[in-house]
Amino acid sequence: MGRFLGLSAWFFTLLRKLLFLYVRTNVIGANREQLGLDPHKPVCYVLQYSSLSSRLVLEQTVLANDLPSAQRPLRTASGVQRSFVFLYQRQGGLFRQRPRPTLTPRFQQLVKAGLVDDTRDVQIVPVSLFWGRSPDKENSLLKILLSDSWAVAGRLQKFLIILLHGRSTFVQFNQPLSLRQVVEEFPDNRERATRKLARILRVHFRRVRQAVIGPDLSHRRTVVNAIIHSQAVRTAINEAVERDKISRAKARKHAQHYGWEIASNFSMVTVRLFEVLLAWLWNRIYNGVQVNNIQTVRDVATDSAIVYVPCHRSHIDYMLLSYVLYSNGLTLPHIAAGINLNMPLVGPILRRGGAFFMRRSFKNNPLYATVFNEYMHVMFARGYSVEYFVEGGRSRTGRTLQPRPGMLSMTVRSFLRDHRKPIVFIPVYVGYEKVLEGRSYLGELKGRKKENENVFGLFKSLKNLRNSFGRVSVNFGDPIHLSRTLDQVKPDWREVEYDEDYRPQWLTQAVDTLASEVVTGINAAAAVNPVNLLATILLATERLAMDESMLAHMMEELCRLLKAHPYSQNMTLPSGTGTEWVAYGESMGLLHRQQQKLGDIITVEGNNAIFLTYYRNNIQHLFALPALIACLFQNNNALDRDRIRFLVGSIYPYIQSELFLRWSVDEVDKVIDQWIDVMVEQDMLSQQGQVIYRPVPGSAQAVRLRVLSRCILQTLERYFIAIAVLRKHGPGKITAEELEEQSTLMAQRMSILFGLNAPEFFDKTLFRNFISNLKGQETVTTNAENKLEYTTGLDDVAEDARLVLSSEMRQSILQVTQLGG
């Protein structure tokens, strides 16, 4: 008997090694610590379907990842078996199988063993295995025959599947179940205990498949036909006939053309080609791609339709996110792309990679708007993952832009029509140490005409792949459940029936709330890197220069500040030391070293100063509150806590709106107190009773406080410019649009006169947002002639600026404002 078992083990090993001459696997979760395995308890792996090839892959995977072997003996009710079981087995001969799979005897014996010996526990580890990760396509016979489907495959079919998909096999290990905990509910009923464990595992495998592969894909023609035959589109066609005086056939042809123009044409072959190409590209241009908080996405992907909402800093964003998701075992999203990318050759490739195309404007074309809305509804109702950018376009300044409501509104309206499938938004922060489009951004920030959004801009950025673009971080934020947001805005929203045309009065409020949650979630997942820190400190110096050792120390101090009071649990900080970060920035070509006997001086030269404003702006929101506090002590020796809370609190609503800070106005006083305590602990401030004092002028602590204050100082100067322009004209003399235009010109003039290397200082959209917030806070109002009125409250705001801005800066702003008149 022993000789037979030895021969069997030898033959099994031979088969395993032969199989892996061809098969290649991508493995997720095969880590002892990640799984939390108890070394004192036996482990039993559970695969969904009985298959020799799956057993071979399992054993190869556990051995390669230093997990307990699946070939280990495991005692069960009927004796000793291996440390694995299949949930279902195939019935019938070579070409026959039962339409429904049957529980395996070994699985039933495992449950019986748990009932017989209630002192012995077994860790049951579910293992999902997919030969290829191509979603099944409806109405495709070849796909049905040669895909790793829900059904139990026959032997011939399995051979063909391995031959076709074996090079892209995916294996995912999940958290173990306790056999004892599952069966102890039914100590005297083996059948019910077996059914319960089988049901838990069946649901688990189904949810993993949903997350990894997603729902079955309809053929593009099927989707377009379904949209054209929907009630909403048929109504829109009838309206087009009446409105445009065309035949019904022509109107229907227009609708069909729009459907084909919009719809994606997902192809797994294209995805795999992209995977190979992008893996090469990332290794070529980046020093690494760091992914954080991906488990959050896996947790919600099992039973929800996901909307990925990343920040938009580069054309690389959508390709990078798709690559990260696919590499981590998650189904690829369908990506909203501008119609300008639907070019010959490029468009079809992107479409096969999951892109669907949308026009920049839906105005004056209600038929197109209806077709697009119906397409989005089909995506969400069927549970597909979707990705779009709420900012609309790429940020040229490094800040998160004001969200646009269009796509969010479509998503909310679709969910109101059919909310059986939960929709969850996942904010994604993509942090670069060097953006590929940096040169084009630099030209635009200097006044060159903005380049159109097109893929050729990316190709031009890739012309020199020998340059290093540093590391890139992809941080996933906390999930935003759409149903919970609607509950906050309209608790009884489920009690109303919504059709495709119904727009409730509270829809705008719901979309605005959702937009705020999304961009706040993006910023909360910020990734701090050495380039961000270098930019923040060097741009705060008078001459863009600092002693190397002091610079290294200051970078470490800023990191300690964020560690002492983290902005959020999803924020990430760099590893290493300040000295290493300075050397890294130098190797990236962003710094210049001037050697000096008393210690080298690090400077920023040429266009790099403007480059660095982009990276400083990426993380400006993280330091906004402590920087506001620091600003107060540039002109004041001491302030009591109440005064600090009042002054920072009065400015906070404007900063919050501009930088999408996560704390509400009601809770910010508590956060201000926490920051004061941290700054006292870090020796940036001192305290006696309720009075807070600044450090001794010229000390190292004073330098740190000054550097911190300058993180936000230019924003406050910009606010003062707008107030100064408004007060110069007087109440009822100027419109909001005129104030925006004049403030922008004044800021641009100051930027030239005082050598400010910060293009966002005269960004028109930032002035527009500030003026809008002045209205929202009722500091200014609009009269019947659309002119801005204000009361003495604005004078109070200007007076408070005395405590924040130096007298020299206030006089400079007032002087420029008067000369500009």
TrEMBL record:
It is found in: Cell membrane. Keywords: Acyltransferase, Cell membrane, Lipid biosynthesis, Lipid metabolism, Membrane, Phospholipid biosynthesis, Phospholipid metabolism, Transferase. It is an enzyme of class 2 (transferase). GO terms for biological process: CDP-diacylglycerol biosynthetic process; fatty acid metabolic process. GO terms for molecular function: glycerol-3-phosphate O-acyltransferase activity. It comes from the Bacteria. GO terms for cellular component: plasma membrane. Its EC number is 2.3.1.15. It is a peripheral membrane protein. Residues 306-433 form the Phospholipid/glycerol acyltransferase domain. Pathway: Phospholipid metabolism; CDP-diacylglycerol biosynthesis; CDP-diacylglycerol from sn-glycerol 3-phosphate: step 1/3; Lipid metabolism. The keyword Amino-acid biosynthesis does not apply. A motif (HXXXXD motif) lies at residues 311-316. The HXXXXD motif is essential for acyltransferase activity and may constitute the binding site for the phosphate moiety of the glycerol-3-phosphate. HAMAP family: Glyc3P_acyltrans. This is Glycerol-3-phosphate acyltransferase. It comes from Hydrocarboniclastica marina.
